[in-house]
Specification:
Length: 137
């Protein structure tokens, strides 16, 4: 059962983020990272690093470097594990971070990479979500 604890706190953090409660999202994702490292769950750790990056990116512009590094670290792990759907989502979130911070070239590069992966895997929900951000550029 202990392996699922990381999932629960991960999804709690994601729920907080989506509802706009950044402080609780940050606290929850820190707990998730601690748990994932304690039980040696590389998958939850990688996903949590990406979510931590998303959360940091929503906090303040000064968190941009931290946010970017967290997402890149999580992406590297997911790519190593060959988890293509999660990797594509990571590129989407990295592109979204860049778009939100006015880095249009980097945003376009990552979003088009995510778009191609989502098309290939026929992940229509995520493809549409990616296209909505591309339109903003």
């Amino acid at each position: 059962m202990h392996i699922y604890v990381g999932y629960f706190t991960y999804f709690l953090s994601e729920s907080y983020l989506e509802s706009g409660n950044i402080k609780h999202a940050r606290d929850s994702i820190e707990e998730t990272l601690t748990l994932s490292r304690k039980i040696d769950s590389k998958y939850i750790e990688a996903k949590s690093l990406i979510l931590k990056g998303r959360i940091s990116g929503k906090m303040t512009p000064s968190e941009m470097d931290t946010a970017e590094n967290n997402i890149l670290d999580g992406l590297e792990s997911l790519e190593t594990m060959k988890l293509k759907p999660d990797t594509a989502q990571g590129y989407l979130y990295l592109g979204e971070l860049y778009a939100d911070n006015g880095q249009k070239e980097k945003a376009f590069e990552n979003l088009t990479k995510a778009e191609g992966m989502f098309k290939e895997m026929e992940m229509d929900y995520w493809l549409e979500r990616t296209k909505k951000i591309l339109v903003r550029l």
